[in-house]
Amino acid sequence: MINLSVNLNAVALLRNRRNLPWPDLCDIGRLALGAGAAGLTVHPRPDERHIRKSDIFILRDMLRQEYPDKEYNIEGFPDERWLAIVEEAMPDQATLVPDDPDQATSDHGWDFAAQRDFLAPIVERLKKRGIRVSLFANPSPEGLDIAKEIGADRVELYTGPYGASFNDRERQAKELQKLAFAAQRAQELRLGLNAGHDLTVQNLTPLVMALPNLDEVSIGHALIADALKFGIAETVRRFRRALGDPC
Predict the structure, then answer these.
(1) Residues marked as catalytic
(2) 90-99: string of b/e by CB count within 10 Å (b at 16+)?
């Protein structure tokens, strides 16, 4: 079964428009987990424009106390600020993303050849703490052997180009083929496989069929957008069905 991790960044962004405590991230997280989500994802950025440092520990405590069988994934650029947060929070998974602080959202994977020496000690550092490490990767087989060599447990394929091709079937098929080639290489290397960015109910099923070794998807924007129509719990169930889970 493919795990669905619900990214709460969009919920935090909505909350931060006002100096008020709602929507409450824990309440939304409980609804998602209660509907069958396998875990929660947060991506704290230095300006705290959505997820705040305090959110990370409140959510961690909620998960540990109320949902000990669910997973916590913290994404971000692995500078010392972020690493200190991760080492204190001790999530199940840390996803290293090559984000610039000014980026609106993630839009590319690591250049593994160029950034090997930067990533290797960070991967080792986190794994020594017992944290599973996933590296954000472009939809390409290139460099995945390096990700394996430096000790990554998984890679998360960037599915942005695939998601952006929603109105162009020919382009979508080409982008899906790229993802399939990358997934095949990850399988050959015995790397776990995650995927994320602009995934929707509509494009998930073709992705699942093309990537049979997929372990997890992390979804935020589209899921929260759909929740405005269907509610959090029903939206989570719709995404789970798109992943092939007969919930």
Answers:
(1) 43, 75, 197
(2) ebebbbbbbb
